[in-house]
Amino acid sequence: MSPDLITFGETMGLLLAQPGLPLEHADGFRRSVAGAESNTAVGMARLGHSVGWFGRVGDDPFGHAALRMMRGEGVDVSRAVVDDTRPTGLLVRDAHAQRPIEVCYYRSGSAGSSLRPADVDEQWIASARSLHFTGITAALSEDARAASEKAAHVAREAGVPVSVDPNIRRKLADGPRWRELLRPLTGYADLVLTGLDEAREINGHTDVRDTAAWFLERGAGLVVLKLGSEGAWATDGTEEWFQRAAEVPIVDPVGAGDAFNAGFLSARLRGLPVPEALAEGVVVAGNVVQVAGDMDGLPNSRMLELTRDSEQVTTR
Amino acid sequence: MSPDLITFGETMGLLLAQPGLPLEHADGFRRSVAGAESNTAVGMARLGHSVGWFGRVGDDPFGHAALRMMRGEGVDVSRAVVDDTRPTGLLVRDAHAQRPIEVCYYRSGSAGSSLRPADVDEQWIASARSLHFTGITAALSEDARAASEKAAHVAREAGVPVSVDPNIRRKLADGPRWRELLRPLTGYADLVLTGLDEAREINGHTDVRDTAAWFLERGAGLVVLKLGSEGAWATDGTEEWFQRAAEVPIVDPVGAGDAFNAGFLSARLRGLPVPEALAEGVVVAGNVVQVAGDMDGLPNSRMLELTRDSEQVTTR
Amino acid sequence: MSPDLITFGETMGLLLAQPGLPLEHADGFRRSVAGAESNTAVGMARLGHSVGWFGRVGDDPFGHAALRMMRGEGVDVSRAVVDDTRPTGLLVRDAHAQRPIEVCYYRSGSAGSSLRPADVDEQWIASARSLHFTGITAALSEDARAASEKAAHVAREAGVPVSVDPNIRRKLADGPRWRELLRPLTGYADLVLTGLDEAREINGHTDVRDTAAWFLERGAGLVVLKLGSEGAWATDGTEEWFQRAAEVPIVDPVGAGDAFNAGFLSARLRGLPVPEALAEGVVVAGNVVQVAGDMDGLPNSRMLELTRDSEQVTTR
Amino acid sequence: MSPDLITFGETMGLLLAQPGLPLEHADGFRRSVAGAESNTAVGMARLGHSVGWFGRVGDDPFGHAALRMMRGEGVDVSRAVVDDTRPTGLLVRDAHAQRPIEVCYYRSGSAGSSLRPADVDEQWIASARSLHFTGITAALSEDARAASEKAAHVAREAGVPVSVDPNIRRKLADGPRWRELLRPLTGYADLVLTGLDEAREINGHTDVRDTAAWFLERGAGLVVLKLGSEGAWATDGTEEWFQRAAEVPIVDPVGAGDAFNAGFLSARLRGLPVPEALAEGVVVAGNVVQVAGDMDGLPNSRMLELTRDSEQVTTR
Amino acid sequence: MSPDLITFGETMGLLLAQPGLPLEHADGFRRSVAGAESNTAVGMARLGHSVGWFGRVGDDPFGHAALRMMRGEGVDVSRAVVDDTRPTGLLVRDAHAQRPIEVCYYRSGSAGSSLRPADVDEQWIASARSLHFTGITAALSEDARAASEKAAHVAREAGVPVSVDPNIRRKLADGPRWRELLRPLTGYADLVLTGLDEAREINGHTDVRDTAAWFLERGAGLVVLKLGSEGAWATDGTEEWFQRAAEVPIVDPVGAGDAFNAGFLSARLRGLPVPEALAEGVVVAGNVVQVAGDMDGLPNSRMLELTRDSEQVTTR
Amino acid sequence: MSPDLITFGETMGLLLAQPGLPLEHADGFRRSVAGAESNTAVGMARLGHSVGWFGRVGDDPFGHAALRMMRGEGVDVSRAVVDDTRPTGLLVRDAHAQRPIEVCYYRSGSAGSSLRPADVDEQWIASARSLHFTGITAALSEDARAASEKAAHVAREAGVPVSVDPNIRRKLADGPRWRELLRPLTGYADLVLTGLDEAREINGHTDVRDTAAWFLERGAGLVVLKLGSEGAWATDGTEEWFQRAAEVPIVDPVGAGDAFNAGFLSARLRGLPVPEALAEGVVVAGNVVQVAGDMDGLPNSRMLELTRDSEQVTTR
Description:
Six copies of one chain form a homohexamer. The first copy, chain A, is an alpha/beta fold and 316 residues long. Chain A has eleven helices and 14 strands. Chains A, B, C, D, E, F: This is 2-dehydro-3-deoxygluconokinase.
């Protein structure tokens, strides 16, 4: 079966401090899974899409648990590699509505960062309805960057639309390095989904229209700017759309961007116009931030509909 | 001793997901008890009233635990029946401030739904200061409907004031069925406590004054319309009163209506005028929605007074 | 791919009281999944086998969670049916090393009990290396019994070896009914895995050799008698083997039999002789009883090997 | 209704560290209720007896919760006094199978220790089938000692059989003081239930027969010596009986003696002979030590029967 | 090393109900430490200051745990006394964003309340950069009052600036008694940090300027009035400053005042002007109220900076 | 003050799965600290000794928490280095009485493994009453090995007795490498504390007397062989002693060896003869294995005495 979407990257074990307690002082932790692309993959699978994810995990409890979680959600992980020479990355963090969130990363030398071009199944990607990735992967290692580029190249050659979210993490690389990595990669994007700050790292612009124009000139057909608690704005160079964020009580803001991507991409694959896709992105993100964990609050279709009906969100 | 209030219905075990986690993904559950009328009974007992509850539970851990809880709170359950041929109903749900709440009901064929006219102790009801019930009971089974009618009839004959809350649950019956069940039963009511949507299912009106007039024409002396986060409105056909809802951080909105009933009925039994009773209803409901669980946040008199003093609520 | 084993039956949500607290007084519950056949299916999947399971679950959080769990473990649930007209069964219980275990079943009218012959994918079964089922399914409903028989018949016709575990539960049917149900069904069995008490319900024998002889006469090639804390005994009519149980600290004995089946069947499919298969069954069961939950302690291959190496178990 | 048994004493809030963690380092606590006599009262109520308890609690959350718990279990607490001038006692401890148990008592100046003769309802006691108390109460204060004596005196005058358990706690008084307190009080006892060490504090004997003889000479008709993990021994001066302790995995030994008393007294009230009463005492105690908490493991009649059937205990 | 600040008082064990559940009904508790001055001491230690605390704790798990906690945070407790004749005080409470908080104190006769002048190390205090205490200590016992006075006197003689927070608790003394205790003690203060209501208990004024003037006349150089959710106001008699409170989601307001003191005092010791010190006080308090517990949310310097950067707070 | 003992090595954050659940499937984790030498350091500090520990931790929540824990226990960590260029190591594991324990190590490139000779405070070591280290440190890095050697050398020069525990972990190095590392280092030991298997890696002997003789020949004055659940054996070449292990219910065997070392070294420092020191080692280890976590069950002096009194252990 031709997957609606293929994505790839690093997936890690997540140990989440009891919500509201600072990491340094928390005693109890709940286990989950984290990774920008796997978050989006699970988000789309819950909304009923056939989704494939690939990447490398270690031959250890966190690696097996991550694959089991995704497989359980219906994500096709048959191309994932269990690398018995490296550990699965691990992320330990706290969760707060508003206090700064503290994160300990244990991902250096991880299996996930050793993704390589040989892991890219060209035929599978060419068969998909869309390809999605984030800039994080390229920053993990030269191999992983090359794998990202190969996947993007295969998709373009096969006419598979590509979406890219820069998803810049300062812990992984500095500004100039991010620019060097992401300028070529976003060049493959038919759709760019990005925060405004992240976009500025790449193109230097601070204005939404300027930054969108920069990506549109380089080949994107649509640019979506995620504006956090304000909402999301999009343009195709001709029209512009804006959607207010959902007004919900925030428990843990982490994962909102990946969730937005899932909602937006899902809506587009279902043929909805941009403003409705923005609204779906905002509703999916609004579900996620009400639940501690990167992906634990991702809604299924029925929950999405219930939330939509509760008029939390109005498209305009 | 003559009880201040007698009520009856189905009481179930409740297993409540850790607040904030969606039911489908929650791992940890806390146990409590649920049931519209037992919520109100406990609410009034905590406020110092002598209260009786009757109904059927199974001869199993959930049934015994429900009776133990009510007995512990001082509710007289001496007329409750332990039915060893049917299980106690069970309800598993999640709790969110704002996400739609997901509920799994295991109440078909339950002991509670087999309440019957023979379970109604006529002398006891005739001795009480008031009788309260909800429309849920009538929708459980023909036997339970007949028991509701018998109790209402006994009360009217004995001059015991009757209050009714339609409390329509779409999972139990459809609109026409609710109308058929509740038109006769609300006819017994001296006091109707209802949501606006529920009232419309019964009488088709969408305006507060129209809907109140409909109940007043059929014999009610007072109609209270619960308007959710806006507050509550009441009329006796002559005067009108309105009370804003308490402004509190919501943890779990379930049980707010039953709690309002407890506060309102308690105030009336203590001889307070309608506007003060509305205020008490709103304060009790405001306590309950701050705590996960249908009845876990019901305040005692001291807590009620403390909350009132904190000026969370102003009567007007 | 031809599955190593196909099995079917009812799978339910499980809410497990905090180990050591009696069900009637426990406040905290952990969620898992229960079902004799799904336990065995997951057990074999963890040991590296390709396994298929089918059955019906409701279109509700417990049903989706059960499928997600099995799918995550690598069990092929593509033939499972989501029945949106019935709820998924639910089981609430406590867990003790030695106190009697208390269980509340909410499975009457469940989706799982409405399994029917049309749910049996004949081609799939005919393609498998083995078929396994328990007597529980036949006791759920006439439809479910017919489905069991159809699956057994298809397997026999296709030359697929059949294993049957009577797994008699007194809550589901009385003795004569069990006899009526299981005499024909065990007639399909190439391999009978049973407790001694359960076997007596079927054939009236109390001696291990007599009871084994009864099954062998009716066509079984091998009979395994599970003797609880003593161990397990087997015969093919010619030879006899015995294996002591593992000496481990018990946390929750539930699921030991299903785990034994997984270990034994896995070993046989890997071509091991009967005594080694008995030893593997005993090791897998010994892992499960050290962990609260029906299946939470099922080991993977690596864990099985580690346990075996720790000389907890000696084959003789 | 004439109660089967009346008892009295101090009941305290209990905060129990997560089993297995030392008190000084534990982070999580579960709340329960503790008090030798209320343990026995709840034990007997769960076994189906009508039981009354009296004593003083503070007008605070721990006091109300203790009464609610007992009332919920069906214990008649209508004679208990809520003393709004003193706090309810509190006990914080850890629970281990075998490590020494660490306890922090907060009971000095507690409401419970201010029990006084005026709290003793003479008519109620005279109407009971039996009176039970422990030596702890007398050690709390002179008022409480006088109340114990008054209750004992009333019972003797009314021909109500009295049972006494010295239950010596070194934290409350020293050896000579215990002797002074308990010699007169045990003089009222028809039945003495005691540990051997405690008896020695009172009468100086170290041999079971000598110590029993001492109590029999002073008027007891039956003496039961609780021998911990060995079991229990009894004599009426003519015959002697012994019962081995149940062989169960211990989680928390606290409360075993109170539980034994409940089982023994219940059996005697049901007319069972001494050896069967010893056996019931041992089974009830065996249930309690498998569960963390003083009284959380007290079985109901059905659980008692199940345990008895499991042949954990053999009468001889 | 000369400590930046020395403080003293009573420190108690804290058992905190699971946030959101009323104390009377909560089952689970988390352990922490409470005490106005130790809260401030830990707050300052986390911000990098050398801090000393002295007082008395019992020779019991709560006393040792309190010292271990403070020592762990780097607070110098070498002058603290372990008093093996009295227990450490204990405090059991619930935590709510807005419901009234219920507290059970077990501090009568505690080790902490027996602080005495002999416990005051004069040389150590004379060597410090500042001394801080609250009015609570003086209300514990005459000995503790005398110790407070001695410490204040020593500091004044040595030219060590003194800050006092009245911190009136109605449970410890009535209004006239507070006035009698605090008028002399606040006379030692170079800096008064107080709530408006507390100040009124002392000087009868209800206006911020009047109340400040009263303290300034009696020798204070600076008066800070903590105005709860509105913010904080300060004057030195010449200038006035105001700082809005941080807008954060409140989980547990307890400890906000002690945290404010830590932030304010720390900023002053780092040489910051009053308005910036007010801002730091507000940020530290804003961190604490987002976390359940009196001191669990106290930020370290890095966290303080991150919060400040998030523009939660604007100095004006 | 001259410390009784100085030790050094790597200390890591520990996240421990809820006891009894396999790591791959556990959802809840509790946080503690792990590290062979810090375990022994805390063990001795709890028994009343002045102890110093040094090593490197990262400038992150796990590093600060580890130092805070040790400082809280009274261990002098003033020579520890906070290395802001590397993360603190992390260890995630499960805890079982008997199932194999699964561990995920995140320590490659950790701050702890970058310990170097410059971190060794020569004067401080020369001032101590004893120096203790394990072979783990030498296997972390060449720098760490050199630091170990330097510390050992300084101690020998200053006449400070040295104890060494090889503590071989197969995950860190292979057999030949361990031999190469440990032959020179154990050459500094006045006291060797080792398991039999570990000793064989170093000297090839399998017999207790042979292996002891090998160490004695190379300069050790006393050799203690830890024999797990059997107990411990020691010789000085002249006499031999044996001590049975404590018979306790095991919850988590990890940390037993480090705990034994603390008990043994403490007893020797208090001047006790070898057989009593063996008994103390066994009692301390017996306390630790009853509690989940590497060091959470380490007893203080009072607990040690209580355990000793309970006759769990008999010296012979």
